[in-house]
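Appendix B. Extra example for self-study. Work through it before the problem class; the solution is given directly after the inputs so you can check yourself.
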Amino acid sequence: MTMGQYVARRAFLSVFLLLGVSVLVFSIMHMAPGDPVMMVAGLEAPPEVVEAIRKEWGFDQPIHVQYFRWLRRAVVLDFGISLTTRERVSFMILSRVPNTLKLNLAAYALALCIAIPVGVYSALRQYSLFDHVGTVAALLGVSMPGFWLGLMLMIVFALKLHILPVFGMGTWKHYVLPAFTLGAAQAAGLMRMTRSSVLEALHQDYVRTARAKGLAERVVIYKHVLKNAAIPIVTMMGFRFAYILSGSFIVEHIFAWPGIGRLAINSLYSRDYFVVQAVVLMTATMIVIANLTVDIIYCFLDPRIRYD
Amino acid sequence: MLLVVTLVAALMVAGCAPQQEEAKPGAEEPKEQPKEEPKYGGTFIIAQYADITHLCPFLSTDGASNTVNRMIHMPLVMYRGNNELVPILAERWEYSDDGLEWTFYLRKGVKWHDGTEVTAHDVKYTYDLIMDPATKSIRRGNFDLVDKVEVIDDYTLRIVTKEPFAALLDKIATQPIVCKHHVEKVGLENYNHHPLGCGPFKFKEWVPEEKVVLERFDEYFEGRPYLDQVVFVNIPEPSVRLMALETGEAHYNWWQTPEEEIPRLQEDPRFTLYWALRTDFHFFGLNHWHPFFKDVRVRQAFAYAIDKEAIVENFVPYTGVVAHGPYSEAYGFYYNPDVPKFTYDPDKAKELLAAAGWADTDKDGILDKDGQPFKIEMMIKQGDELRRNIAVLIQKWLKDVGVEMTIREWEWSLMLDALTKTRDNWDVTLVQFGASPEPDHHLIFHSTGGFALGNYSNPRVDELLEKGRTTLDPQQRKVYYDEYQKIVAEDVAVIFLWHSNHVNVCSSRFKGMKQEPAGQLQYIHQVWDTEATGK
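Solution. Structure tokens for the complete assembly:
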């Protein structure tokens, strides 16, 4: 099987996967208790208004009719009209995507900048003071809940030191606390993964051979250790990237960041079906694409991985 | 998030309005004149709990949108002070002897933000739009009893009702007017991003999920606002909203200030706390369909078994006032303090239960009658920490008198269904009823009321509520509502626990607000920044 065939096959299967996800998302939302129309219309709305809203949004139709109508539109990125704001869902999502992307990319970059060098250096200096400090920091990073870390950072840097803002976006300063909060847990996991992958590679025969050949340590590390240690790291980076649009719900909520996460949480509270369905479907699509991309990168990194 | 059953009750305080109401400019002046000379300029940043959803005043349903809307748009009358209805766009009004025709005389010279004048045509257009089923306004129910709206001339409007409608003023007080020619030009579908009103601030910008920016309207009919801008920012977390106030990134928080933070904020000179006693009540609801609760002695026993003073003292010491009846003092004229009061008395509770035939015959610690143990289930909203804690306390108090109560958390929408539709699948509950200052409680305590909380039915209460909503004479209405308050308290329609004493936290840098039950932001045009330097 050629690589082209492999990619085509995976892409084809991904479509079915997404279809399955769409059925699941649609069913879960519709099986959830409560009447979305009542949530939107309010308790004091007269019955004829409730019925008019129900009809307008098609909730009076059988569920399979609703599903296919929604799917037909979703294929062309028309996710319908928001129940609460009466705006186009695609517009609502698109207007928030850049904000979420900016935050997540900043956090992702921060995580990479911290995790890779610290992880590699910890592995090269195993059981040194630096390694121990790195291990403790990683444990803290993984263990601390995002909302708690965010609040602590706010108290220190905004409330006490007055050097960073508490909420919102606009200047570079607004990025520091949410990006660090979001990046800390990512960096911690990635750092531990990097450390263990590099340690494992360091103990491989080919490294011993490279050193025996008299290669400079720098060459051994860069050419033999890091390249081979990269596969699990790339996998993890790929998975993290998949959550670049959906991994910051809590942080967006805490820091009042105007992104997809805030939109999703607000929509869940108000039972804005069409927005929730669109966000979940978009997230699923991102994960499928990220998985596919990681698999393809594997092939370049390690020729031993076969397409079949 | 606090559980709130916000059932906007409504029928109205025409009672507050004498047959012919003159404009009372003095009533709109601040009671406490600031010592310093007000300054022009500055930006007032209000922290909101959520983004707005609609800027059309008859399509918005949430508090965040309504707060913004009420600065852009104005109604004919408005609640101010101690929940009195004061003239705003209407200079005065009168009603016919049969109570079916209301005539409103509009203030002349009031300008829309585009410089044109507000006329009776705009008012008719607004009300007609709301009443048009095609608009799908959830406020349409407010105008159910309105037969038609007629323009007499540019400044005179007549509203004809199908029957005497005492709540009419309350309905129009919560309904700001839109500009006819502007809505026709931009269309309702585009109104969200192009709202235009005649309020003290005009719309400048809405950045979704981030902020709404309003700027002052120099020709506002109550005088040019002191502030240059009002900005609404969205901070969903209550603790973060407070931090934003402390760092100066926001200046005002009107939603869910954490109870435990209030003593500290009261001591902090950087903040001024504004209190507004609400016309709501939090209550222990009993399902009157349940056979156990058909006997009034059992209901009264529960009222004696629950220590409402302890609940307020322990859970809402600052934001709660013990309730004995359906009206708080914020109802002003209609408040009747002389209602039966049930104070904590477990011995009295046991006596009443025994008198009702309940006894612990099998000595298992739980009362029983005709072989049925007194076991009930409490329905509370999922994730509502406040009510979960109160429920545990009530569970203990009821256990002390021989009643076993289990607690079950319900998903909110299911709970709403249970309260309003499938009414026989719950025993007791803890919720809040949030009402307007209109005394009519037909919605919840009339046997045919839309929500009929707890399925309460009492023919005398029905009669009083019916008379109250169709009587326009305030003195006569008060007679009906005084008796109504006594009966629902004595009959234990529900067990009243506390009224909300809402707190708004404002940076002390800003002056011009008032301590009034009707709230603070309706005086936004008088708010000024002590650090402003503008002209």
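Self-check: Residues 165 and 377 of chain B are 40 Å apart (CA to CA). If your reasoning did not lead you there, revisit section 3.
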